[in-house]
Design brief:
Elements lengths: L1 H24 L4 E2 L7 H4 L1 H4 L4 H15 L3 E5 L3 H6 L6 E5 L15 H7 L3 E3 L27 H10 L15 H5 L16 E2 L1 H4 L17 H8 L5 E8 L22 E9 L5 E2 L15 E5 L22 E2 L16 E7 L7 E5 L12 E6 L4 E6 L5 E8 L2 E8 L5 E6 L1
Helix pairs in contact: 1-4
Length: 420
């Protein structure tokens, strides 16, 4: 049996080496087989054999590794994800529905197993505008394709930590939205963990597009969990203070230096909210310290963070609340407009300084931009990464004042920032 498996892997490997070589000649750097789940619905050889699926997977993965290609498995089953643990070329998994069908934002639960396996989830390609309501054959128009919903797809794709694909028509791309996600050279400024549903939702059996369903659990505890859950979608992620640009996401789940990382910020993304929801300590990962002080702001609300202005004009110290969504035009997608709320530890530095980062980006303190954020006796330090000549606005709370310093990246690609 072992000889037969190795023989078949070898033959499949030969095919994939030839196939991948053709792709590389055309500029291919990654490969994706679509809808992996259908292998177990439509291919009898995969369900009538204990090893045919693995043989096929290994033939692909081994050849990709030899060719220095990465592989994405789209719509992989949990079985596929676990099988990929021994296939290093398989680095990411698409965990969402197709964009054209709607609901491709539904990644809050499906991302979790991929993250736990040390890989990268991603959502399907997206539009950054309504693209003139272009009619896609076989796909009815969905409210989450309206212009007002475009930021949701951009934010979720970025914070999935996987590949981001833009599929606008020519001339249909909202450049402003894309610029909120990238450095000058196109590097995606990602968080340190894939975006996923908060624990308050998961405890109630929620966090997906089926949130209106009746929870399977019964009893007092289940009723309490449902009552404590958000009435809508609330996802969360974080940025790591000591993150390394070359190994930001997803780290090594379970390793000693990963289990309790130090967060430089937490990010909550909420939408489809039928009521405001107070975000409590259980919904933070990494967990808050007892009595930890926080400051927060919602992206795009116009709060002033001008240099020298009072800190209170830039951030808030009140309770963190995922706001009620705009329900004024649900059929037009207003309820899909995301609230992106970033929360920073306000007491991390004894000096009273708080590092906020680049507030023009959805992930203001991404460690792909800022690594080694460290407190000093009189302020803080950080390494700022970018492209030679790129200007990066860095915002810090200097006790009760806002301090904005524009860093010009040198030819080395990094700048050692020290404040004050």
């Amino acid at each position: 049996i072992l000889y037969s498996i190795l023989y078949n892997i070898g033959h499949l490997g030969q095919f994939y080496r030839w196939f991948f070589a053709k792709g590389q000649d055309a500029g291919m750097v990654s490969f994706e087989p679509d809808f992996m789940n259908q292998n177990y619905n439509c291919v009898p050889d995969f369900v009538e054999s204990a090893d045919n699926a693995r043989t096929w997977q290994m033939g692909m993965a081994v050849a990709a590794l030899e060719k220095n290609l990465t592989v994405q498995w789209c719509y992989a089953t949990p079985t596929d994800i676990l099988a990929a643990l021994e296939m290093p070329a398989v680095t990411n998994f698409r965990v969402s529905m197709d964009f054209c069908y709607g609901h491709s934002w539904d990644v809050g639960v499906s991302s979790l197993i991929v993250w736990a396996a040390g890989a990268f989830p991603s959502k399907d390609t997206l539009w950054t505008s309504a693209n003139g309501k272009f009619a896609v054959p076989g796909c009815n128009w969905s409210p989450d394709h309206e212009n007002v919903a475009a930021p949701l797809h951009v934010v979720i794709a970025l914070m999935s930590t996987g590949p981001v694909g833009i599929s606008d028509m020519i001339g249909g791309t909202n450049v402003t939205l894309i610029q909120r996600t990238i450095a000058k050279d196109g590097t995606l400024l990602k968080p340190a963990k894939p975006l996923s549903s908060i624990d308050s939702a998961l405890a109630a059996g929620r966090g997906t597009s089926n949130d209106d369903r009746t929870t399977v659990a019964t009893g007092v505890a289940a009723s309490a969990a449902v009552a404590a859950a958000p009435q809508g979608q609330v996802y969360s992620t974080y940025t790591a203070a000591q993150g390394q640009p070359s190994a930001v996401v997803p780290g090594s789940p379970g390793s000693a230096n990963w289990t309790k990382p130090t967060a430089s910020s937490w990010i909550f993304v909420s939408f489809l909210m039928k009521a405001p929801f107070s975000i409590g300590p259980r919904d933070y990962f990494p967990p808050l310290r007892t009595g930890q002080k926080l400051v927060h702001r919602e992206f795009g609300l116009g709060k002033g963070c001008a240099n020298g202005s009072p800190a209170s004009t830039c951030v808030s110290t009140s309770s963190v609340v995922a706001p009620l969504s705009d329900m004024s035009n649900v059929t037009g997608g207003t309820d899909f407009a995301p609230a992106v709320t970033t929360v920073w530890p306000a007491d991390a530095c004894a000096s009273g300084y708080v590092f906020l980062g680049d507030l023009t980006k959805y992930v203001a303190a991404s460690s792909l931009r800022f690594s080694h954020v460290t407190c000093t006796a009189t302020g803080l330090t950080a390494t700022v990464h970018g492209t030679s000549g790129e200007s990066v606005p860095v915002t810090v709370l200097a006790k009760e004042k806002v301090l904005v310093k524009v860093v010009d990246i040198p030819a080395s690609g990094s700048f050692a920032l020290s404040i004050p």
